[in-house]
Amino acid sequence: MRDRVPKYPGRVKLIPVEGQENVYDMRRADEPEDEGTPMNTATFLRDATAELAGLARMGSEATPDDVFQVLLKRIVFSTEDLVPGESDLEDGVLYLVYKEDG
N or C, where is the chain less crowded by C-beta within 10 Å? Predict the structure, then answer.
């Protein structure tokens, strides 16, 4: 991800809202040298990524923190609980999965 690099940090333009006294729309006027990576679901957490983490039930409500929690719960100190799995990824790479309890 790339940070936004503004020429004039914090500069905004206030545009009067027609028919509403003392109400303004605010737009960035910082003249960025680099727009940076957009801050949206496509860059933070795609639905497909949430689904891979087992969060399909959450749909578009899943957050990056939800994925971090899933990953942290899967960390183990040995590989005894790992078994070969199959990938549905286009490159067909095999991966390891945790055995289900019970």
Answer: C
- Please tell me the distance from the alpha carbon of residue 31 to that of residue 29, in angstroms, as a whole number: 6
Q: Which helix (H) or strand (E) covers residue 97, if one does? A: strand 95-98
Give me the count of residues in the chain. 102
Q: 3-state class of 48 per DSSP? A: helix
**How far is 82 from 94, CA to CA, in rounded Å?**
12
Q: How far apart are CA 97 and CA 77, in angstroms?
A: 14
Q: CA nearest 68: which of 44, 89, 85?
A: 44
Q: Is 15 left (phi over 0), alpha (psi -120 to 50) or beta?
A: beta
pLDDT 10s digits, 23-55: 999 999 999 999 999 999 889 998 888 888 888
Using DSSP's 3-state secondary structure scheme, residue 2 falls into coil
